[in-house]
Design a protein that fits this description.
- The protein has 2 domains: 5-19 and 162-358, NADH Oxidase (3-Layer(aba) Sandwich), CATH 3.40.109; 36-160, NADH Oxidase (3-Layer(aba) Sandwich), CATH 3.40.109.
- The protein contains 13 helices and 10 strands.
- The protein has helices at residues 5-9, 13-27, 48-56, 96-115, 177-183, 194-213, 215-222, 229-234, 244-251, 257-261, 266-280, 295-314, 333-342, and strands at 68-73, 77-82, 118-124, 140-146, 189-191, 225-227, 239-241, 284-290, 318-321, 350-358.
- α4 (96-115) packs across α12 (295-314).
- The longest helix is centred in the first third of the chain and has 20 residues, at 96-115.
- 50% of the residues are buried.
- Bound molecules: flavin mononucleotide (FMN).
- Flavin mononucleotide binds next to α4 and β9.
Length: 380
């Protein structure tokens, strides 16, 4: 679950803003360092691997946990492992979504390497995999080889512009069939059909409702909320609630972790209704189904997802994954079953991602830890 800004903005802040007035608004702080990794130094690192990874860390990933550990090996390779403390045990019990996030990371690294004329060869799970949980074994071993035949990928230009846009989309501005077709890649699917969208919306909204009202799942999110600029700068990950409204809300004592956790309170109720509105505003839907659910297929789903997200960015379209109805904990099982049925995923087939697409207000980037914080001691 990720709370949209609108969700929280609705969450009891209205009164506070009226009381606070413009002076306090202007005095509100913005994060100082959390968005730094999006400002790429125009002089790239000499080592192509570091250039690739400074782009890769901008990848979309569940709850913005950024679980990437990077170990440079020799002078042309790297090993990627998972920081196991950054998983989401309640809502992602088999680390499926975390693995998809590694797929998005690898694809951005590959695109950035190609920009420098390097091929990035990926050997997924070189020491084997466990379908139930990730462990200390590597997610991927990478090798970078200079190759003049490597084609530049035009999606490179969208990497720093890409966002997950969690705002309400403009329902009076439909997504055309031809634009949807440009977002959808090989093997992906999407629709602008209102009846199909309506049937799926019901499950998608039921999924977010269930997550927010299931204490163990909701608290997993609450524990990852960074409220206000100081918290966002100190921990540039998780669910960041920043901007003038949150600063003021915090200052006035209206928004804090306890208020957000109080499931009977007004803040919670208004937040939930905001989420229903954003999750429900669906001009178009995009999804990825894989034949099975192996780790390699999960990585592939991530690579496909981020490419679609970059293509949408190029078209000025917002994109927002809504994963609750695809999760594997008991409480969301009915939505999971119905979405698989509606999307015709039978047998071992798995719906890995579902995302809405549409025109929304411009949004800023999500915080990131600097690339250096992901670097482990190199292996010579
Ligand atoms: C596998 C996966 C699942 C995600 N599920 C959700 C979701 O259910 N709700 C949501 O708001 N965002 C979801 N996201 C988006 C992340 O929250 C987002 O990528 C992260 O906060 C970083 O923001 P950015 O994509 O704007 O850089 C998902 C992303 C991935 C890769």
């Amino acid at each position: 679950m990720t709370i949209s800004r609108r969700g929280i903005l609705a969450a009891g802040l209205g009164g506070g803003i009226l009381i606070a007035g413009g002076g306090v608004w202007r005095a509100a702080r913005m994060p100082q360092t959390a968005f730094g990794p999006w400002q790429l130094d125009p002089n790239p690192p000499t080592d192509v691997r570091l250039d690739a990874f400074r782009h890769a860390i901008l990848a979309p990933n569940p709850h913005n946990r950024q679980p990437w550990e990077i170990r440079l090996v020799g002078d042309d390779a790297a090993m990627i492992t998972c920081d196991l403390g950054r998983r989401l045990p309640v809502t992602d019990p088999f680390d499926r979504q975390i693995t998809i996030g590694f797929g998005t990371f690898l694809e951005l690294a590959r695109i950035a390497a190609a920009e420098r004329g390097y091929a990035m060869e990926i050997e997924p799970f070189p020491e084997g995999e466990d379908p139930h949980a990730l462990d200390r074994r590597p997610i991927a071993r990478l090798r970078f080889t200079q190759n003049p035949a490597v084609a530049r990928d035009p999606l490179f230009d969208q990497i720093t512009r890409r966002r997950s846009n969690k705002e309400e989309y403009d329902l009076s501005k439909p997504v055309s069939q031809s634009d949807l077709a440009k977002v959808v890649g090989d093997g992906d699917t999407g629709t602008i059909d209102p009846e199909w969208i309506a049937a799926l919306r019901e499950q998608i909204v039921a999924g977010i409702d269930k997550e927010i009202t299931t204490p163990k799942a909701y608290m997993e999110s609450v524990n990852l909320m960074r409220i206000g600029a100081a918290e966002v700068d100190a921990n540039p990950d998780g669910i960041s609630l920043n901007g003038p409204m949150f600063e003021i809300g915090k200052m006035l004592g209206l928004v804090d972790r306890a208020a957000l956790a109080e499931m009977d309170g007004a803040v919670f109720k208004q937040g939930l209704s905001g989420l229903r509105a954003t999750y429900g505003s669906i001009p178009a839907l995009f999804w990825i189904v894989t034949p099975g659910n192996s780790r390699v297929e999960q990585l592939e789903a991530g690579r496909r997802y981020v490419r679609a997200n970059l293509r949408a960015t190029a078209l000025g379209l917002g994109m927002h994954p809504m994963s609750q109805c695809l999760q594997e904990y008991e409480e969301v099982a009915p939505m999971y079953a119905r979405v698989h049925e509606l999307l015709g995923a039978t047998g071992k087939q798995r719906v890995q991602m579902i995302a809405r697409i549409g025109y929304g207000p411009a949004v800023g980037p999500a915080p990131r830890w600097p690339m250096e914080t992901h670097l482990q001691a190199p292996v010579t």
